[in-house]
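thread: overnight batch results

M.L. [08:02]
morning all. the overnight job finished for the chain we discussed friday. pasting input first so we're all looking at the same thing
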Amino acid sequence: MGELIPLFPLGTPLFPGVVLPLQIFESRYRRLMSDLLSHPETGDRRFFGVVAIRQGWEVEAVSPAEALYDVGCVARVQAVRPQSDGGFRIVTVGGERFRLLDVVVGEDPPYLQAEVEWLAEEEAAEEAAGNSDGLVVPGTPGGATEICDEQLDEVVASVARGSMDVLSRGVRTLFTRYVAEVAGLSSGGGPVGDDAHDDEPVVDAETTVLLGAVADDPTALSYLVASVALLTTEDRQALLAESATRRRLALESRLLRRELTLLQTLGAVPVPLRQFATPMTVN
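M.L. [08:03]
and the structure it wrote out:
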């Protein structure tokens, strides 16, 4: 049995560390906020699970298991401003990731609940560095000596750090070019990447600050890229479901190269398809 938490379906995934402001209008989610606010201020229960909608808008009208993706992210409530009409303006921040085990639909409470299992980040040095079998260190002039356990751990950890650093720098460079490309096309300018022979793409101040804030944190960088890039819901969901930072960054490297090619070839910024949909709820 997993833990039972309130559920808030949205049109796109939430990522750990990402700020998500929400305006709460609908009665069932007003009830959700009232239930959360009934906990003491010092408690740690002021959160709900955010899951992306796979199909439709009213997930209760179809099987929730079919309508929702199975990996979501907790939204921890940081600020609440009650409105005169009974609604709420809230600010949340993405927390732990989880996997849906079951979705509970009922009349009391009127909002969805989910039984979940929590997902941990996989950051083992062995996973980050790859297969370490067969590693050797220099030995006598006549050959090599197999690595002992302590030496092996040290070598693997060193390779892992170096591998992660190279991957992070690559994604950071690609993301900087991508943001500059999108900004140039959105403002009506032409390509600002390789086609324009720009050595230093111009990136807005906010993005520069964000990149600086995650400069030493590959995991935070991976979630920043996943949340900012104009990717499809399917692409974002794949990034959220990935539990290893190294594999997440590797996937983002491929996605950013694909998106840069499309931007420079088409000369237009993609619009997420969900912007053309008409939701059936006011949230």
